[in-house]
Structures are given as C-alpha cells and as structure tokens.
Amino acid sequence: MVLVLRYRVLTFLVAILILVSGCAWFGNETRRAEMMTVPTMSQTLADARSSSTNAAWPQANWWQSFNIPALNRLIATALADNPNFKAAAARLRQSQAMVDAQAAELYPTVDANISFSAQRFSANSTQAKLAGENFRQLLINPLILRYHLDFWGRDQAALEAAVGRSLAVETELADVKLLLATAIAASYFDLVTASEKQAIAESIVADREALLNLHQVRLTTGLVTETPVLQAKMALHGAQQLLAGIRAEVELNKNLLATLAGQGPDWGRSIEVASAVLPKPLALPADLPLRLLAHRPDVSAARLQARAAAQEIKVAETAFYPDVNLIAFTGLHSVSLTDVLLQGSSLAYAVGPSIEFPIFEGGRLRANLSYQEAAYDAAVERYNASLLHAVQDVADALTRWREIDSRMTAQIQSVSDADDAKGLAVSLNRNGLNDRSDLMLANLEAHEQGLRLAALQGQQFKVAVQTIKALGGGFHDIEADNQKLSYAN
Predict the structure, then answer these.
(1) Were 318 and a residue from 154, 292, 348, 363 both cysteine, which residue would form a disulfide, CB within 3.0 to 4.6 Å?
(2) What's the sign of the alpha-carbon dihedral 276, 280, 285, 288?
(3) For residues 399 and 49, is the Cβ–Cβ distance under 8 A?
(4) Phi then psi for 134, rounded to 5 degrees?
C-alpha cells in the first residue's frame, strides 16, 4: 500500500513538473514570412519570343557549345585550381561532416572511464563518519551508456536542418561554378574582341601614318598648307592612343583570365586567342518561367536555407518540453586496490532515465525561439529577393539581346555601306577622278566601322553568356522541379 502511495505521489509530482514546464510559454505568435511565387512575366516573354526560338535549357557544360577548345581548357583549369571554387568545395565537405555529426545524436553513445583518487577527509569535516580518515578510491567503468530519448523530435529536426544546410551549400557550390564559368567565358570573349580590335586599330594607325606622309609630301611641294598636316598629326595621335588602350585591354583580360584560372600573370600570356562564331538567334526554353526555380542554383540554395531555418524553429520549440535521457553504467568501484578485481562485492551498476524540466530560464528559451523565427523570416525574404533577382536577370538578358540585335543589324549595314564607299573610292581613283587622300579616308572609315562592329560582336557574345547565366547554366534541382509551382498568367 505504501509503495502504491509513493508511486502515485511520484506520478503526481512528475505531472506537476510537466505542467509547470509547459508554462514556459512560446510567447506571442507572430506571422511568419511567406515564399512568393514566380512573378508574372508573360508580356516580357511575349516580346522576346517574337525574335527568338524555343529550345531546351542550357546543358551542364554549356561553354562547349561555342566550339572553342581554348575556352574549354580555361574553364577546366579554373574548376581545378581556382582558390574560391576550392574554398566552396571545402565548405561543402564541412557541411557534410556536420550532417554526420548531427546524425550521431540519434544513436546511443557508449564509453568507458577509469579514475583513481587518494583522499583524506578533515577531522572537522561535516562528513562525521569519514572524519579524519584516509582512503583511496578506484572506479572502473568499462561500459557507460547514454541515450537521448527524442520524444519531441528535436534531434530529428536538427538533423533535417543540417541536411538542408548541406544541400544548400552543395547548391551554392553549383552557383559558384556557374559564376566562375560565366566570368571566364565573358572575359575570354572580351579578349577575343580586344584582339580583333587591336588588329583593326593597327591598320588605322598605319592608314593615319600614310595619310600624314602624303600631306607632308604635299606641304613640301607647296600643294597644301600646314593645316592638313597638323590635322593628320592629331588624328594619328588619337589613333595611337586608341591602339595603346586596346593593347592594355588585351593584357588586362589575359591577367584576369589567369587569375580566374588560379594561375599567375605569366601563365596568361600563353592563352590562345581563337576566333569565335557569333551566337545563333536567342533560344529560350519553352517552359520558362515555370521551371526557373529548378534551374537557378541561387534560388534553390535560398529555398533550402529557408527550409533548414524552419527546422531550427522546431528545435527551439522542443526546448520548452522536458528533456529525457537514458543513462546506464556498470563497473567495479572500491576503496581498496586489492579487492576491486577479486571480489564480486565491488560490482556496481545503475540504469534509469534522467529528466530535465525547464521551469524558469529567464526568458532564454523564448529569446532563442524568437531568434530562430526571425532567422526563418530573413531566410524566406532572401529567397524572395533571389527569386526577384532571377526574374530580373532573365528580363534584363532579353532586353539586352533585343538591343544588341538591333544595333548589330544597323552596324552591319554601316560596314556594308563603308565597304561600298571604299570600292567607289578605289574606282574613282583608278579613273583619276579623285586623289589618293580620298581613297585613304574611305579606307579609314571602313576600318572604323569594322572596329565598331567588332565591339558589338563582343557585346553579343557577352549577352549570350549572360542569358545562359540567367537561365541557370545547366543546373537542375529535381526536388524543386517536382514541386507544384503556381504561376498566374
């Protein structure tokens, strides 16, 4: 009867503690941030599709579509040697190790310990029974078991949070790869363009020198005044400045490419400059923008971070509930070194639960929960911002493509007109209807129009790269692709 009464009292006390611990209220609930859907861009796409074709999403190794072996080698070298990319890969290994560490919390731990101490209790100690005694203590515990009973799902939520963050880091690595590859491709096309401009600029300088020589000869013979000579000198100096700037542009692009590849500037001097074929007409995926979420690594990483933050809220909430641990040990305990291993009376063991009840934490638990809720809201808003940025990237790429396409059409016509004018000047000069200076000026105009065309061609290559980047550069998040994405047309 007494035993039953004690059991009821113990049960009652445990219930009271649980009830009291439940008084550590979560606090006033606030509205959580919400993930937005893909913004409407049907009109933007309608304008772009009038001058584009339907195609699949970019492939993983999209740079190979340009058919430039030198570019392929540059990107391969960068993915192997670029310090920033290797640092991102190291962060991925870190996050994966954290997942393994968090998964270990779901399993019991077993360890052992041995301790020895020599002790004397004071004769005036409160330990009256042992006052003035000397003794040695030997504890041998070959088996100590600890197991956290995850009644409220704290360990599971923490594991899911760790997994989510690891997946986010893996996705961020894909984003770093995309940024690195697009930076190299854009810089390489800048180098190709600068090399072509350098060849044209050298021809312009040669033409300006020839025109200056012609005017100097005429000045010597008294056919012209000094004014054309001075004008020709100024034009030559301008052409020389242009050439110097373009040569510096070539060197700077080589330096940049060497750094992106994880190499020194001398390595960049050997970069092969190959001619490239102009991009084909803009091709957009037929299912844009619905699947944009699955093809943008930055958006996918932000979504995974938000999901991990949601699990952290669950972890913070479980701190308001009693924490239960199962503890057990078995070993040999004795104050005598001689009988600890010889007498069975030295055997000691214990097994039982350990329950901790949060009653008064000074607001620490509520503060931690509020912190995790705010972290979740921030993660969601970062996702929303990344989604808006992704849509803007697509819209900007389409706008730039239409702009460069119109400018290219007009400039190609200008080059054609300059070539016709040059041909006419050659014909007139052959028939004695104009002088040699008219022919040189027509040749100069053709070169200057070619210089503008080369610059526009370089911009067109870069816009093509920017479009590939805006479309995710071959990244594919299967999980995001399988989700039901709502989009209002």
Answers:
(1) 154
(2) positive
(3) no
(4) -110, 135
Calculate the alpha carbon distances from 24 to 256, 311, 324, 427 in Å. 58, 20, 17, 97
Asked whether the beta carbons of 324 and 150 are under 8 A apart, the reply is no
Q: With cut-offs at 50, 70 and 90, classify the pLDDT of residue 151.
A: confident
Asked whether residue 474 is domain-assigned, the answer is yes
Any idea what the CATH number is for the domain that residue 278 is in?
1.20.1600.10
Burial of 43 (0-12, 13-18, 19+ CB in 10 A): exposed
Q: Is the peptide bond before 289 cis (omega within 30 degrees of 0)?
A: yes
Residue 345 in any domain: the answer is no
Q: What is the span of the domain harbouring residue 263?
A: 33-107+153-323+363-482
Is residue 161 domain-resident?
Answer: yes
Query: Counting Cβ atoms within 10 Å, is residue 45 exposed (0-12), middle (13-18) or buried (19+)?
Result: middle
Tally of CB atoms within 10 A around 249: 17
Q: Which of 91, 141, 168 is nearest to 477 (CA)?
A: 168
